[in-house]
Prior knowledge:
42% of the residues lie in helices and 16% in strands. It has helices spanning 26-38, 56-66, 83-94, 105-121, 138-150, 168-172, 178-181, 195-208, 218-228, 232-249, 256-267, 289-321, 360-369, 384-390, 402-408, 448-454; strands at residues 45-50, 72-76, 126-130, 158-165, 184-190, 394-399, 412-418, 421-431, 434-439, 442-447, 455-463. It starts with 25 loop residues before the first helix and ends with a strand.
Amino acid sequence: MYTKFFALREKPFSSSPDPTYFFPGATHQQALDLLLDGVTRETGIVLLTGDQGAGKTTVGRRLLTIVPAGTETVSILDTRLTPLELLAAICDQLRVNYDAARDGIPQLLTALDTHFVNLQAANRSCVVLIDDAERLASETLLQLRELYDLDGRRPRVLHLVLIGESAMRRTLATQALQPLTKVIDIRAQLDSLSAEEIGPYVLHRLGVAGAHQQYFSEEALLALHELSHGLPVRINQIGDRALLAAFAEEQRLLTAELVRWAARQTSAPATPPPEKPRPVPQAATRSLTPWLLVLAGIAVVALVWNFAKPVQRSRQHAVTATKPAPPPPPVPAVATSPQTPPTSPPHPLAWPKERDPNLSRQDAFKALFSRWQLEWTAEAQEEPCDFALRHELVCGLQQGNWIGLITLNRPVIVELRVEGQTYWAALLKIEHEQATVALAGSTRQVTSAEVEQGWTGRFFLVKEPD
């Protein structure tokens, strides 16, 4: 909206952790240097901690763009995983084959070890970066120690990087996690930006977005640092709203007054939405229309279900009442045509025969992106996760279980295997044991049990950054 007014190519204060906007300030550059050192030489696990909003994810994303050429990278976004699910997610991103239905932790470790042997033979390495690591359960953290011990080669092939909030240091200090703590060789703490860094930070982001001048006055920068406490996430929130306000006022030099107004706007509590059932994914649109459509869909399903039950009972009674007696001896003179055996109804999540299942992934992403009112097409030859990143969303392939998926409480794209076919669908909502699924361009109301039974455990998580 305001980009043209300020001669910008894009919004400079996006909340997305875009590595191209990495600011090489003192604390951030030092943290990045430590991480890079940790993944390029013989060290143990690398740990980066910092307060929420300090820019940890951006530093991690930047790291993955500057690792040596040929390095395989894994980025784990959803950390509410069991030990088995974490290993499976790593295997998926490294394209290591395993049997999801039968293989356990020993088999996955063996498969990963074989992969690391092949990487060593090719003189390559692997970096596994786990964001929001403070959410990992203790048993999953200890599984990382076992994964670390798996690679005892020299030089090391596997490098583990953990990123978490400052409180994670206290968690790792507990006696139960000492086996993992002992192999953490590099620890970096990400601090907030100083008052002297706020001006260069803002100018850096404006420059990356295409600006050739500073739009914030000295007083505005001082107010921005005071109100944000130097946390990049708050700087970005306030800066974006302040530019919007300046555009509305047709001001090209932002004042402290505008910054303070923007800070009040971004810190005010959101107006509670109309009362509605608890969903799995939270719709990004502010409109009530999607909720009305969902409620209408549920009403239709309930009506059809209540109608179907008496019909089914009447059919059962009819079959019972007309059960034939033992047949009499055959009469040669009378010829009877054979009865056609009854056909079972199609599975509610069956893929339509007229559509190619290879198109399922693009159908699912289209449906999911529409929740943010975004239009993505496969014809643009842009990977959906790249498209998500460009629109300030986080996207990644994960492995999980049904309880974890419900707990996640977000829209996801699930891989289904139904009636011998494997394909993708967008799981939009679950409530009262009913699920809303977008499949092959249409929305279906099914039971959550039917989704759970057909789900392979793999899913794409698309969300707004924390």
